[in-house]
Write a structure and sequence with these properties.
Length: 336
């Protein structure tokens, strides 16, 4: 197999899949293209078989979610010996040198386990993500989301996490920290993996020359209440699994305020049932995640002070309602 494999999970995405694959097959750096056909009910499989014979298709009997779907493709690439594995959304399009720039970055920086790109909306007018950050309220956010495209984010920097929609992963790092947590299904599974990488001493690099374009929300908008359910389920698990003890206790009071504010907001938007379902599913997963937390923290190679130092103080930029309700709480540095 090629030096790089690109894994694309697909669920009922036939309308956008062609543009996605055309952009990946035209990359300046050749790669093995793997589509995980994630139990689609449309004609995606027939479309792939008829039009993309060079693409590896891994057909699944049901929708495994983003996390479960990409893990199928990642395991396949691991068996074939690719040292780098990229993930790419089926509703996104890559610039011709997107992959080349990401691979070059990881080759030049051996301590970096993940490289992420400048991810824009499909019209190239606003940003989707320039890497993700994690805040002292326990809330992740994509840097720059919704801002006009400009040169403001044109510097190479280390970020907390990478978007699973268009990023490159070093296989050595994946073998050390594990794959995506399939209990997350979708939403924040990419931040969870990046958090585990940070705890194990790996870094995440933002590469502004690597460009990709995204039809934001094209998949999640197909299921009513999906985002609410996954958010209420996954946000507490992300914090509980990964935050070292004194970091966890610093974040927890703020997080409780934010989390129950989301619950009330869901009720206001007539999405009480998805929010309640997500809450109880989260509770049912806590024993399993407690065991995972012990293992993650037992293998941690960095200090709590280091983790606190790479966490962004305050609320995410888009948390407008919370900002109106609460004054920012000043963060406190943690001693080593």
């Amino acid at each position: 197999m090629s030096e790089v494999a690109v894994v694309i999970p697909n669920w009922n995405g036939m309308e956008s899949l062609g543009d996605c694959l055309d952009s990946l097959l035209a990359q300046s750096l050749p790669a093995a293209i793997i589509v995980v056909e994630n139990g689609s009910k449309d004609s995606s499989l027939k479309f792939l078989q008829a039009n993309y014979p060079a693409v590896i298709v891994l057909q699944q009997p049901k929708n495994l979610g983003f996390a479960g779907g990409v893990n199928v493709g990642v395991r396949y690439a691991l068996e074939k010996g690719s040292p780098f594995i990229a993930l790419f959304n089926n509703d996104a399009v890559a610039d011709r040198r997107w992959l080349e720039y990401l691979v070059d970055s990881l080759k030049k920086h051996p301590k970096h386990g993940i490289a992420t790109c400048k991810f824009m909306d499909i019209n190239e007018s606003s940003l989707d993500s320039t890497g993700d950050q994690y805040t002292s309220w326990g809330l992740p956010f994509p840097r720059g989301r919704g801002e006009p495209v400009s040169d403001h984010y044109d510097q190479h920097v280390e970020v907390f996490a990478a978007s699973g929609g268009a990023s490159l992963y070093r296989v050595k790092m994946l073998q050390e920290v594990g794959l995506f947590d399939e209990d997350f299904f979708a939403y924040y599974e990419d931040v969870d993996l990046s958090f585990r990488a940070q705890l194990a001493g790996w870094k995440v690099r933002y590469v502004p020359e690597a460009l990709a374009y995204h039809q934001i929300g094209a998949t999640s908008s197909k299921i009513k209440g999906f985002t609410t359910y996954q958010t209420m389920k996954n946000l507490p698990l992300l914090l509980w699994k990964n935050a070292p003890g004194n970091v966890f206790w610093r974040i927890l009071p703020r997080f409780i305020v934010a989390y129950y504010s989301f619950m009330f907001s869901a009720a206001w938007r007539a999405q009480t049932w998805p929010a309640v379902r997500g809450y109880f599913r989260m509770l049912s997963l806590l024993p399993k995640k407690s065991w995972q937390r012990w293992r993650i923290q037992h293998n941690r190679t960095v200090t709590s002070a280091y983790i606190w130092g790479i966490i962004t103080p305050g609320l995410p930029p888009n948390a407008h309602k919370l900002k109106l309700l609460f004054h920012p709480i000043k963060t406190m540095r943690i001693k080593k």
